[in-house]
Amino acid sequence: PPSADELRSRFPEICASIDLIRLAHEAERDGAPLFDTTSNAKCSTAAQPGQRVLLSGQALGRYKIVGFLGAGSMGAVYRAYDPNLDRDVALKIPQLSEPQQLDRFLREAKLAAKIRHPNICPIYDADKIDDIHFLTMALIDGPTLDRYAASNPLAPGKAAEIVADGVH
User: 40 near 46, Cβ under 8 Å?
Assistant: First the structure.
């Protein structure tokens, strides 16, 4: 299979829209890694330097990666199993390209961990293993917000009402 750098060089016009993390996980489902994820090439927002692709069965400290949940501009989220507490969790692995982003990430983690609200996902831990920073969070099963909104459209007034209720 082509490497990430080869894909970027062969298809520069669509380079920014290639989601290399999703491609890697789709290839994993098909039984083989698609590319070397240690590349330093800069292009896709989903696979910047410093962000590694974790595959099912791989360990990150005590956590065993169960699967890929999604990726965005902040980084990637994986379903993982915590054997110490015998539960599935979400591991959020940020994409950190500048040193001050780590400070912000850790500051936000500390603040979010203090919040107890039914509409806020609980944070269990913030840690670093093998140069990978991550948050351990409650795993909330269900559709992504994008999928939910696509099948349950809301009128703007109703959406504003829900947001306002969540703020109070």
Answer: no
